Amino acid sequence: MRTTTRAVVIGGGIAGCSALYHLTQEGWTDVMLLERDELTSGTTWHSAAQVTNFGGIQVMVGLKTHSIKLYEELANDPDYPINYHHGDGGLRLASEDWHLDGYRHFQSMARGMGIEFELLDAQESARRHPLITTEGLKGALWDPMDGDIDPAQLCQALARRARKAGAEVHRHTPVTGLTQTGDGWIVHTDKGDIHAEHVVNAGGYRCNEIGAMMGVHLPVVSMEHQYFLTEPIREIEELDYRVPLLRCPTDDFYSRQEKNGLLVGFYEQDCRTWGLGGIDPNFTNALCPDDPERVMPVLENVFERMPCLTETGIHTIVNGPITYTPDGVPLVGAIGGRRNAWAITGLRAGLGEGGGHGWLLAQMMVHGEAVYDTWALDPRRFGSWADEDYTTRKVIEDYQNEFRFHRPHEHRPAGRDKRTTPLTPVLAEAGAEFGTVNGWERAMVYAPEGTPTHRWPEWHEAVGAEIDAVHTRVGIAEVNGFNRIEIAGEGVMAWLDTLLCGRVPKKVGKVGLGYFLTEQGNVLGEATMALLDERTVWWGGAAAGEVHDFDWLTAHLPADGSITLTPKVATHTILLIAGPKARAVLGEAAPGTDWAGFKWLTCTTARIGSAEGVAMSVSFSGEDAFELHIPVGQAEAAYRALMAAGEAHGIVHFGGYAVESMRIEMGYRHWKADLITEFDPFESTLGRFVKLDKPAFPGREALLAKQGQPMRRRFVTLLMDDATLPAHGGDSVMAGDVVVGTVTSADYGHRTGENLAMAFVDPAHAEEGARLSLDLLGTRQACAVVPAKRYG
Ligand SMILES: Cc1cc2nc3c(=O)[nH]c(=O)nc-3n(C[C@H](O)[C@H](O)[C@H](O)COP(=O)(O)OP(=O)(O)OC[C@H]3O[C@@H](n4cnc5c(N)ncnc54)[C@H](O)[C@@H]3O)c2cc1C
């Protein structure tokens, strides 16, 4: 066994085997995998092992396509062929109109990744799967690539290829401890220590045992999950093809063919967490006790959809632990707060996705970033607030809704009390409906939420009324959770100047917007910098970037300790005052500040009522607006002072949906929707924020090397000819029948009366005036490229 290596992968299920294999493919061959027992002895061995291509976002579709291509290649490898039923096809049933709308959106989104799903009517669905009835069926989404694979053979094949490329695989080698050493790790095992530059937690349901060894908690909880294997079914025996996979969002089951019978799996409402109080060290190659009673209500639904099963015996029950995260998407990427520590955990569909997750993780580790923006998978999308209690509540909710995909603006009820401010109940009293942003309860609209939909939401007009009041009078909103970090120390601006790709504010009292890049010159993040005094800057960024930005800044801190970082997100909330009467309201509520002379993009300390905070003149809305950063304990006092002063000016509350509509009209970007690591700042039309003549910043060399090369895509604003349908992130942009781009975000501009979308498109179609269309819910909506700034 080597005692030094580049990377140790801990765990030999599909996650670990795929990560190991892909590391060798990306160029790191001095790598090891340590498995406490036998390969696949965790969850992987007993998986139903269905492999599907469906995903709710493009990155999922892309990584699953990678899995499918890889598994095909492995299946056809004459040296070690493996069993893979590829191309049985699969049906996602629809019994409600919103299922069909969702499928049409997913169809458009997958089309942008080169994948064609088909939408079938009920009769055609039953023709393709002759065991199902059409009772109450509206149709189904057909995925031609669906199939299933032998999980043990798959892992052996990956490990075998990795070994051939130079990797070591050690079974019966439990990792017992981890010690961070500067940038690297000592991996302790009962066979001795290994010095590794990187460690990868691929520990499946034991990922938090490994997490504890490095002092982190991962938001992963296991559920017991059951499937039944049936006796042979005559109807299947008589077919000359394999029946397709089935998934049902109403009846909470899936099935695939197994020999001449079916494998049927259940997502029961009366579900069980597993292993929360600790896991028996001897639980290996093991299952949980059979519990058929628990899934009986689901089984009744299955009988109705597939009546032949009422006469079919069950010969095996499999009940095993399956890992989930709070949002159902695995944790693949860097672990926050630790150097060179990575996760590939929380996989609930690890056989279908595992090939792709290992591929993306290896790219992140070896190249610093992957072919896709991987934020949706990034472990740092959760902070320490996503504790075991939160994770458990969300995981149960997710398990109970396994195939009921989220619709736009849908915020489900579990785990909604984790991050609030003193104003949360006050705004609720004022009629706010809340959504969650990085765990925070944020007021989204002051009207009933209605039923989430891919069409115009019920609160559409209410948002228009909020915007009209802001635009003509004045509005107040709480923007809690906005990520703020106080950066302090001698030479702080000079230091930030080496990190951002453009100008940074130089004069005390100035506020500036800047971007930071990956080493490959792609857009990594955006920050508002407010220079409070010579040695203190407040860094502001999207709420979701809380751990991400802190990690990135920490990784770049000068070694001499001259600069310190202090998170402010939990200590200060933001009250936003916007509209033509904003200065008048502030003049009364905060008379100590010269609001009339308060210049755009400046900041100062200010007393609002009895609260002492920091005021900044910045605006996402395009209206005359001020952000008031107030200590949380004084938020209510400041709010009451502002409301009292605002009454005479007709002050209204406005929420996050109104802000979203106004920011689209202004052409402002949203982090990880419009600002992604797949494109550089020129492709993102942010060239004015890049100063290539600066001596150094991350990504500069890569940008210089790329000069003169054609753009991959270009960021544009699209104006639809009418407002028949709203667009959503992921929808395809078409030129004739050819996909030429993807929508990143979209909204209706209430001030301009325009139905707008932002998108990355093929540069050949990016000129102003270019006529294109959007593939929305199975229709084509004509649109044109227009200037980004629509208002003001
Ligand atoms: C009943 C059931 C049906 C399923 N059906 C499907 C399906 O149809 N399609 C699909 O895609 N997915 C399915 N899944 C999910 C899928 O099986 C899992 O997502 C996948 O197997 C998880 O793989 P993993 O590598 O993350 O975890 P595991 O397979 O559990 O591997 C983790 C490994 O880490 C090792 N380990 C842990 N701690 C240490 C340590 N300290 N030192 C060394 N090694 C350690 C363990 O021994 C284990 O081998 C199903 C799951 C269940 C339970």
Q: What's the rounded overall pLDDT mean? A: 97
The tally of helices reads: 18
Compute the separation of the termini in Å: 66 Å
Q: List the uncertain runs.
A: none
Strand-residue fraction?
Answer: 25-35%
Q: Multimeric state of these chains?
A: single chain
Helix content: 10-25%
Count of beta strands: 39
Instruction: Provide the structure class.
Output: alpha+beta
Shape: globular
Based on CA atoms alone, the radius of gyration comes out at 27 Å
Sheet having the most strands = 9 strands, mixed
Ligand inventory reads: flavin-adenine dinucleotide
Could you walk me through the main structural features you see in this protein, from its secondary elements to its overall organization?
The chain is an alpha+beta fold and 792 residues long. It has 18 helices and 39 strands. Strands 5, 6, 7, 13, 14, 15, 16, 17 and 18 form a nine-stranded mixed β-sheet that branches. Strands 1, 2, 9, 10, 11, 12, 19 and 20 form an eight-stranded mixed β-sheet that branches. It has a six-stranded mixed β-sheet with strand order 30-31-32-29-23-33, with helices on both faces. A hairpin with a 2-residue loop joins strand 21 and strand 22. Helix 1 packs parallel to helix 9, helix 2 (58-75) crosses helix 9 and helix 12 (460-472) crosses helix 17. It is globular. The chain starts with a strand and ends in a 6-residue tail after the last strand. The model has no long low-confidence stretch (mean pLDDT 97). Bound molecules: flavin-adenine dinucleotide.
